[in-house]
Amino acid sequence: MLLKLTEGVQLSLMISAMLLKLTDIGNASETHRRGTAEPEGPPDHLIEYAQMARADFFKFESISNVSTYYFNYIYCNIWEGDCQPHQDDASQQVPIGDMWSGFPQYYSGILRAWYCTLGQCCDSGDCRITNNLTGLERDLQVKLHGQHLVQSVVLKAIQGFIKNPDSNKPLTLSFHGWSGTGKNFVARIVADNLYRDGIKSECVRLFIAPFHFPHVRLVDVYKGQLREAIRDIVLRCPQTLFIFDEAEKLHPGLIDAIKPYMDHYDNVDGVSYRRAIFLFLSNIGGAAINEVALDFWHSGQNREDIGMEDLEHLLQAEAMEANGGFAQSELMSGHLIDFFVPFLPLEYRHVKLCAHDAYAARGVQPDEGTLDEVAKAMLYVPKEEKLFSAQGCKSIPQRINFFLP
């Protein structure tokens, strides 16, 4: 029956249901059942807002995806229609953030709380967000190789941020190191453990500098597009993860345009960004990191003895002096990066571990000889020591094809 409703009736039902709850759904429905009086009318300003809202928020094609249970509940309990029995179907447990994104945050919060009283919400209040900190710790320890500093800093930074609901600014991390050392891999691990749908979540947005912002002459256009994109996604999902890959290639004006979103503001144009997470990935400082790792090796020290005190200030100086927009932006001069995270160059033993993981992902259990063959096929630098993999582990998943039976 509901599927045959006209679009105008659908809109009316939606707004009526929302407003009934806002004015006390229980009393309104009871009064309506007794026939003693008409339910109290909704606030004029909310009606006006609903009428002005973009039509795509209220198209039945998208609304129907939210929950059959939701509509049955309204129809059965408010208008006492010819009800369909409720099916406790997990597929109906769809997050409601998107369909409320056109409403002011105050009303969105009320409506979200109402929806949760129907038993269709997760403990976090948003089914899109999992914040699996135990899984994050496990994945960083098990899946990431040769990066003890990353394992410690990223875990502690995100744990502290997630557990502190009163953070005075978004979390901003800058990942530095050679290509193939795991920067994108760690960003994906973070996404997989903080969000139900991982990197594909609507709460995660990846920007690749040369792909999304290729033309310097269009930087003013990109500024507006980027500001609008960030605002829209944070309205839909306050705990958004923004990933900027190849950040050293961003135009300085582009970074400056979004600098207010990472600063110590309660809100920007009525929107709070304090629960957002920004990750900047770049190759800046890669050579300096490698020099420190090589010096430790020459002095007979373990790479695990390298501490943040050996690298973070060095990275900060490198980042501020490097060519490109990232170094010249107010993000650097304003000291808005919370942690400069160094990714160390990977050695032969780490390449073997990456190869083992790549085989395991295909259901193959390789022997030591096969792993050695894969690792030996990589190029190692410097020329004399041949200590570090020039490509890290980046090409390993493709290279093992050559060694598969």
Automatic annotation (TrEMBL):
GO cellular component terms listed in the entry, alphabetical order: endoplasmic reticulum lumen; nuclear envelope
SUPFAM superfamilies named in the record: P-loop containing nucleoside triphosphate hydrolases (SSF52540)
Gene Ontology molecular function terms on file: ATP binding; ATP hydrolysis activity
Every Torsin-1A C-terminal domain range: 346-403
Pfam families on file: TOR1A_C (PF21376), Torsin (PF06309)
Gene3D superfamilies in UniProt: P-loop containing nucleotide triphosphate hydrolases
PANTHER family: TORSIN, TORSIN-3A
Family: Belongs to the ClpA/ClpB family. Torsin subfamily.
Protein name per its UniProtKB record: Torsin-1A C-terminal domain-containing protein
